[in-house]
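So, is this right?
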Amino acid sequence: MRGQPGPGARAEKRRVDGVVLLDKPPGLSSNAALQRVKRAFRAHKAGHTGTLDPLATGLLPICLGEATKFSQGLLDSDKAYETDVTLGVTTETGDAEGRVTNTQPVRLARDDIERVLAGFRGDIMQVPHKYSAIKRNGRALYDYARAAEAIEIAPRQVRIIALDVAAWESPVLSLRVRCSKGTYIRSLAEDIGAALGCGGHVSALRRVETGDFAIGNAVDLARLEAMSDSERDNLLLPVTALVERLPQETLAPLEAARFTQGLAAQCGFGGKSGDALPDGPVAVYAAAGAPKAQREFLGLGRLEDRDGVRFAVPVRLLSTVASRAQPPGDRALAEASGR
């Protein structure tokens, strides 16, 4: 029995928490793909972790339910792409969907290309593409571009971690790119084309990695929609897949109860630590309640040193643990003691 309702039937939403790795097809916006995944799972809440243009294909992690609270790490993570840049042709949008604005002959050797690419590796200043979704005064940049309204776009620093030639068959230059968040591949392609003296645009783009997630583990949208609920659920990664890179703290049962009620909790099972505190968030777990049980993920916290004792202060809680009741007297006592 398939998980989708019959024609005209209203799908009953259900609680679904986790991450599904989608291989987005071409011709579909990231939001349209998100909505189809959300409907397929009949989830109450969903969000994606980094927009792909309709032209682009590839890895689009979709967070469902409670996973949406912890998606910032993926938004901030490095990405990897495979792209085809057609040299000698510039377009209005920087990709194959835009109106051609200029053409030039392409007379380039592989060595010419390698010399130019060397200047684009490392930290570079890049102007976000005018046909991007960045907001200015409440409007996306592409709105200004479509309305032919001139607007100044400030450059910003991005990092090109790796930039390699996968193939060169004039006029198509195939590249492998690994880059920091905020990098626009269309801008990179245009800038490389300009540096080569012939212009260029993105004619194909595929995202193959986001953080630790890879396209080899992603599922095709049509296949996902054809599955039963149980088959789809088996594809879900746990919420903790989003926080595995973070430092971790494990709390004793009483301290875990304090943490889930929004109170600072003592770390290390009451012990002290002289270790340096991490600058960013930490993933906080409750200790396993039985020898064979697993630790329970509680949410994100920040660590503070209070007179040599390490405390975890809640930042973002998993709602399934945040709703736990705590005796009022215990909470009042903790608040009165400054914990």
Observations:
- The radius of gyration is 24 Å.
- Residues 30-41 form the longest helix (12 residues).
- Residues 19 and 63 are 5 Å apart (CA to CA).
- Confidence is low (pLDDT under 50) at residues 323-339.
